[in-house]
């Protein structure tokens, strides 16, 4: 079942065409990677799906609903989530408190007057931390966690928004190689079991080829190849243009 449909997205900055007629889909539960050299247009495409950037032409549909011109906030409510790095100021808070904050902002319209909102979301936060294997660390300050564990907390924060589609911009940047595979395995299993589509960019080709169901390759704003990791690895144009043949 198609979750995200991107059709003919086009964006230019002055004379530079950052995205040219970009079309692709993401199904529920599917992990789709966007790869390409620096300046290929990955962030531009990402930001047009997330709503940080408006396209010159083209269309973005979630569940058949046109969100091309919706604000990032409206997209978030419509199920487009994004992983954010735990900000420096929140590192002193516990893992649970970070997730509680995300739950409070999701439920902000229904916040009661008398029940401290934070306490109300404690159980939900611990449950989300359990989903990412971090229940044990609920009361530890994030500053005391290993970097890979902070990334898991970030995933729990993103899941607190109940996304249908999760956008992850270089989710494993800065992580050790063994931690990368573990985080992406976890992401893939949560995505599959909850039917969440994941769109991610990534520099580490082991992560891309090991974890994406499909890969699209951008070069100078255009999709030059799309397919399974095996198809992409064997594509002569991709090898020439990007993988260094
Ligand atoms: P990637 O994420 O693949 O490295 P980007 O989407 O950031 O690529 O950039 C694609 C092209 O668009 C590059 O040539 C870049 O310089 C240009 N570009 C991106 N954003 C802007 C902007 N806000 N203003 C001007 N040019 C931009
Ligand atoms: Mg980029």
From TrEMBL:
CC per GO annotation: plasma membrane
Record-linked CDD domains: ABC_Mj1267_LivG_branched
Pfam families reported in the protein's UniProt record: ABC_tran (PF00005), BCA_ABC_TP_C (PF12399)
Alphabetized GO MF terms: ATP binding; ATP hydrolysis activity; L-isoleucine transmembrane transporter activity; L-phenylalanine transmembrane transporter activity; L-valine transmembrane transporter activity
GO biological process: D-alanine transmembrane transport; L-alanine transport; L-isoleucine import across plasma membrane; L-valine import across plasma membrane
Domain of life of the organism encoding this protein: Bacteria
Domain ABC transporter: 4-245
Cited InterPro entries: AAA+_ATPase, ABC_AA/LPS_Transport, ABC_transporter-like_ATP-bd, BCA_ABC_TP_C, P-loop_NTPase
Protein name in the entry: Branched-chain amino acid transport system ATP-binding protein
Species, as recorded: Microvirga flocculans
